[in-house]
Here is the input.
Amino acid sequence: MSQHLMKTKSHLMDWRRFLAFGFYAGMLQLFWMWPGQLHAAGSQTTIRMVRMVLTTPSSSSDVPTAFAFPVPFKPSLGHTNITFVNLPSEADIKVFTINGELVKEISHSDANGSPGQEVWDVTNNSGQPLGSDVFFYLITAEGQTTKGKILVVR
Here is the structure.
């Protein structure tokens, strides 16, 4: 295959890279997708996707839309923290094991410098890193509560 044809073919693949925008849980989200390797038969394509969540500082009525990411949390992928976003100005976050044992309590306040978000280093109340497991979190503020799951894969 000539170099010109190979260059043209690689440019033709650029149409497969695209950005998509969408709303989920009241938040604007940006998706960037691109193809992975095409298998020899050409019948199977691996799609890779990156999701970015664009948030703004929230009001006190946003407890139901608060969530944590990345899930799953994998240090092997370079993850160092879990971030809770779309938080009201004052909130309490509690993280539990699947057996109901409280492992972490976090008090969020916008006055601490991060409006609408709280960054957690994935340690327990004693400062020890959490091991691989499924955890549940509760976010409570002004009589409202939301819950979610976190998967830690070490």
Remarks:
- The beta strands are 18-24, 27-38, 45-54, 67-69, 82-85, 90-97, 102-109, 117-120, 133-141, 144-152.
- The chain has one helix and ten strands.
